[in-house]
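Continued from yesterday's entry.
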Amino acid sequence: MKVRVNRGLCIGVGNCVALAPRVFRLDLQNKAVANDDSMVEEQVLWDAAQSCPENAIILEDDQGRQLYP
């Protein structure tokens, strides 16, 4: 599974950072950035994506098909 952030939608709430700090961080613009997601359980990625109030976290399968949102 791959994770990416739509920075245009991100408002910097930080739920993703709280739930998956090994994957997400907030940058100097207070926008989420996705780091390496290879060592994190998929359920953690799903929880982080679903916690985003703006649906800015996008989950894709290994073939690039969008799974969420």
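--- second protein ---
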Amino acid sequence: MKEFFSVQEVAKLLNISHSAVLYHIHSGKLKAQQVGKIYIISKEDFGDFLKKHREPKKKIKGTQTKLDL
């Protein structure tokens, strides 16, 4: 049986607003199914979203910052 999250649950898990979750859904970054007037996000789709958007930023080779005091 598939597990689903509500928009509010995803917002709480990511510590972002309800409208920010809806933005990610409408922009296509977070897959969701609309059921009546609400959206539900499957556990798998939420995991895929996290993998794509929580990757550590890669360092650009040769750009090291140094402060001279």
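The domain at 4-53 is CATH 1.10.10 (Arc Repressor Mutant, subunit A). The longest helix spans residues 43-53. Will compare against the first tomorrow.
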